[in-house]
Every structure is written in C-alpha cells, then in structure tokens.
Amino acid sequence: MVHQFLDVRRGLFNSKHAKKTQPVAQRKVELEPVEVFGLYADFCTWNPELAERVTEEVLKRALKLIKFRIPHRNLILLLATATEYIEAALHYCEISGRTIPNGVYTPEILGWNVDLLQPLVDIGHDPNGPRHPSFGTPPYASAKILNVEPVRVDRWQTNLPPSEVIPDAIHDMESFYWVLLYLSMTHSGPGGVRREELVGELDADSSEAFELRTICHCFFDGPLEKIAWNKREAFRDYKSFEPLVLRHAHPYFEPLRPLLRRWWELLLLAYEFEGWEYHHNYGLVIKLLERALEEPENVESSDDEQHQQDAQQKRDDFFDKRIDSDTGIAPSQAQQVSALSSHDEHQVKTAFLGTPEAENPKLVSHVRDMASSPLSPTPIPNKSRRIDDSE
User: Fold this and answer.
1) Rounded CA separation 326/329 (Å)
2) For the chain, how far is it from start to end, CA to CA, in angstroms?
3) CA spacing 20 to 30 A to 138: which of 39, 109, 172, 292?
4) Burial category of 230 from C-beta neighbours within 10 Å (exposed 0-12, middle 13-18, buried 19 and up)
5) 8 in helix, strand or coil?
C-alpha cells in the first residue's frame, strides 16, 4: 500500500485534499540545446562587464531556460531575456550575501546546477468535474493561490507569462513570508504582545497608526477580494512594497527587516523567471534564515541609510498624511494606481469565492467609534478554515 502514496503531494493551503501528481523523477526537464557560439560573442560585446562576471556555462543555462519558457522567442529576444535573468540572479546573490568579490559566478554558485522541473499537473483531478473543497488561512495565503487572475512580476521587464498555478513549494514559501510579515507588523515583542497602535481607539492625530491599520486591513484583515488584489498589486508594483508595507514592521523586529527585504527579492526573482529559484526556493529560504540568525542585531546592510532615504521618498509620494479607509488610496492620489485599492473597482476574482470567509469577511471584532478608519486586527485562531470552492 505504501507505493500508492509515493506520488502524492500536498499544498499547504489545501492540506485536506492531496493532489496526485507525477513523481519528481518524471517531472525533470530535458532542456533543449541552444547554439551559443554566436550568441556568446554578442553577449560579450553588448555586456562586457557582465560577461566578465559569469562563465559561458551560465549563459548557456540561462538561454536554455528562456527557450524552455518561451520556445518561439527569436534569438535576439532570447539573448536579451537570458541576460536579464543573469543580471537578476547576480543581483539576488549580492543582496543575499553570496557575493564573490573579484570572482566569477558559475552555475554551482548560482544554484543552477540542479534539475528543473515541469509544472505540477493534478493527474488525479478531472478538470471538467467539481472542484474539491480547500482548507487554509486566506490572509496568509500566496497571492498566486488567492487570485484567479494571473499574478505578474515584471521587475526586469521580460514580459514572461506566468505559468498555470498549482500549489507547490514556492507558494508555501510565500505563505511563510506573509506570516512573518504579519507578526512583525502587529506585535511589539515576544509573548504575543500586540502593538499599542492596534489596540483600542485610534488617535485622530496619529497618521502613522492610521497607515499601519490601513495596511493590516488591506493585506490581512479586510475582505478576501481586497486582500487578493493588494497582494497581486504588491508584486506588480514591487517598488512600492517597502515604502508602503515593509516599513511598518515594529522596531522590535528591526533586525528582521533585511531578511524580509531579501525574501521579497527572492519571490520577485522566482515568480518572474520561474527558473531554478522557483523550483528550489526552499533551500534559498533556509540560507536566508541562517544568515539572519548569524547577523548581529545592530548591523544593517552597507547601503541601508540610502535605502531608507529612498524608501521614505517613495512613501511620501504615495501617502498624503491620511488614507481613505475604504479605497486605501490617499485622497491626492485617488486617480493613481497604488498598492492599496478597493476590490470593488477592479472586480477581483479570487480562488476562495463562495467560501464562508468571502461571505463574512469581517474576521475581527469591530473597533468602537472607528467608522472612518480601518479595523485593528486581532490574532487569527490557529485552526484551518474550510474553503468550499464553488466554481
């Protein structure tokens, strides 16, 4: 009987219904060879500094991946997109602490020396049949899992289309990220101590507390459609994520801010290219956690001061003292698209529509005399919620 379960895989937020998929050994991708000689010469000519930092094998693997993702892309665009992938991977290596000064990056250093995998396919599910019930905690769910519409990342302007979403390890890693971010934003220390800004009535003169409650409402505590839309927009409008959201981590958790920043960068890289970082992200997350544990609490990255100034400037561009609690958009920015918006305006479809949570989105008790401001979130019970998919 044991062999029947060897090819069963579970998604973190669908844990009561295992998906029957192909074993990993059968999902390994045989990448087609790409004629590199002429392309490598062009690569060195157009990107001389980058070419000095990587081996030819790195370019070969990047080209193979992009050709696998988009088989019909012409050679010029193939090379351009592969170049962007290399630059993105090196950028992540540098911010995650894997820089090799005066050295040359190889596939082994980048983590590109392992097998790529075909996308998961639920071979035990009839696509024309009814959808199975799902279970989970939507406020912490991956943006990819929450949204029916594609979640796009185009930080490196590659315009690569996202693949069909079937719960996989990368979505679990994103979920863990939202859990850590939520704790960092809503707690002020160990033992479950809640932030003062989230308890009781809101001081009318406290714009910082108002912004914090708005962020919590839009990303964790509001209606499912609003949570789904804002998480999707966070990936699309990636530049605004730190000045709008990450900055609200409590000072007690300041040592975790570099970890949260690097983890976010990893998700951006993985979701845009869906390369080695997408399929083997858990190992990279473990390395990020290990580095965070090793770093002294009072040590920030070398560019932290300038980074904070840039983040403050971006924040000032978006917030105009107060944010409308319904739309989540500052009054002076009402005509602009930001990371905080109303689900009603965009007709968002989520994977959890028709669920008890969607029908009754108020997951927290009402805060007295705060009709004009977002609710202050309370800890979510530690239990799974059944999500009956109606589609």
Assistant:
1) 8
2) 33
3) 292
4) buried
5) strand
What are all long-range contacts of 310-313, with beta carbons under 8 Å and residues at least 24 apart? 311/242, 311/243, 311/247, 312/243, 313/243
Q: Hey, is 105 helix, strand or coil?
A: strand
Looking at residue 193, its pLDDT comes to 85
Distance CA 277, CA 39 (A): 24
According to the model, what pLDDT value does residue 3 have?
Answer: 30
Give 16's contacts (C-beta < 8 A, 6+ positions apart): 133, 134, 135, 384, 386
Can you point out the beta strands (E) in the chain?
Answer: 8-9, 19-20, 134-136, 385-387
Distance CA 95, CA 93 (A): 6
Intervals of the chain under pLDDT 70: 1-21, 122-136, 297-391
* Contact partners, residue 15, CB within 8 Å, separation at least 6: 135, 136, 384
Instruction: Return the domain boundaries, the chain.
Output: 30-110, 134-152+159-312+343-387
Nearest 5°: CA angle at 138, between 137 and 140? Answer: 80
Backbone angles phi, psi at 72, to 5 degrees: -100, 10
Which pTM value belongs to this model? Answer: 0.74
